[in-house]
Amino acid sequence: QVQLVESGGGLVQAGGSLRLSCAASGRTFSVYYMGWFRQAPGKEREFVSGIRWSTGIPYYADSVKGRFTVSRDNAQNTVYLQMSSLKPEDTAVYYCAAADGGATYNNWGRGTQVTVSS
Asked: What Cα–Cα distance (Å) separates residue 11 from each residue in 39, 47, 83, 107?
């Protein structure tokens, strides 16, 4: 199992930036992907971005392409999500996730709130 702890959420004005961090511990040697999901009030959880742990190849939802950047620090077992040009519709709880032993995200953090004011 992989334990995940997010940090970096907060309140920001539209057009601003935030950086989320997620520190992983436990079975990190078996992680294939790490990613970010979000859930807005009344909506289902949705994929935001992911990164192939071994190669660093990133993946993005269309809604965040060009605005968000995912990166990782293998030595620190940490993944980051740099969010720029934030919009009110980016407001959500952001969850860090890890795919342990395969391509399915099966480990989740508790989430961090991101609120973008207009």
From this structure: 16, 21, 13, 26
Residue with tokens 């953090």: 109
Burial of 96 (0-12, 13-18, 19+ CB in 10 A): buried
pLDDT tens per residue, the chain (118 residues)? 999 999 999 999 999 999 999 999 998 888 999 999 999 999 999 999 999 999 999 999 999 999 999 999 999 999 999 999 999 999 999 999 999 988 899 999 999 999 999 9
- Could you give the CA distance from residue 118 to residue 116 in angstroms, rounded to a whole number? 7
CA-CA distance, 76 to 89, in Å (whole number)? 31
Contact 53, 64 (CB under 8 A): no
